[in-house]
Write a structure and sequence with these properties.
InterPro entries: Bacterial_rp_bL28, Ribosomal_bL28, Ribosomal_bL28/bL31-like_sf, Ribosomal_bL28_sf
Oligomer: single chain
Number of helices: 3
Family: Belongs to the bacterial ribosomal protein bL28 family.
GO cellular component, one term: ribonucleoprotein complex
Helix content: 10-25%
Order of helices and strands: EEEEHEEEEHH
Largest sheet: 4 strands, antiparallel
Strand content: 35-45%
Protein name: Large ribosomal subunit protein bL28
Number of strands: 8
CATH architecture of one domain: Roll
Structural class: alpha+beta
CATH topology of one domain: Ribosomal Protein L24e, Chain: T
Keywords: Ribonucleoprotein, Ribosomal protein
């Protein structure tokens, strides 16, 4: 399996393993590549993504041409998940704020009429 992410093209990196005595030995840094089924142009495709791209895909529901698939009840229903628009209802918020306002208290009501 090629160790290259299909989205960000992250691949093998080369460097040194440095010991406590500062001895340097060549080493390979491999990305954590996982196979994942996603939607591309409405077609289910298996791609190889690094874990950073998978996290971003789960958070944003879309990366580049790839969209997340949500599985419900063992592959019977496949639903495409798109980012949802935030629902803002200003009228309801204003009504709730008005309900929360407490009536003013008079000192006479608390202490009693003298």
């Amino acid at each position: 399996m090629a160790l290259i992410c299909d989205n960000c093209r992250k691949g093998i990196g080369y460097g040194h393993a440095v010991s406590h005595a500062k001895n340097r030995v060549n080493r390979i840094f491999k990305p954590n590549i996982q196979k994942l089924k996603v939607l591309r142009d409405g077609i289910k495709v298996r791609v190889k993504l690094c874990t950073n791209c998978i996290q971003r895909l789960k958070k944003d529901r879309q990366i580049g041409h790839f969209r997340l698939i949500q599985y419900i009840k063992a592959d019977k229903i496949i639903k495409e998940v798109l980012p949802q628009e935030p629902k803002i209802k200003t009228e309801e918020k204003k009504e709730k704020k008005e309900e929360k306002v407490k009536p003013e208290l008079n000192i006479e009501d608390i202490v009693g009429k003298a």
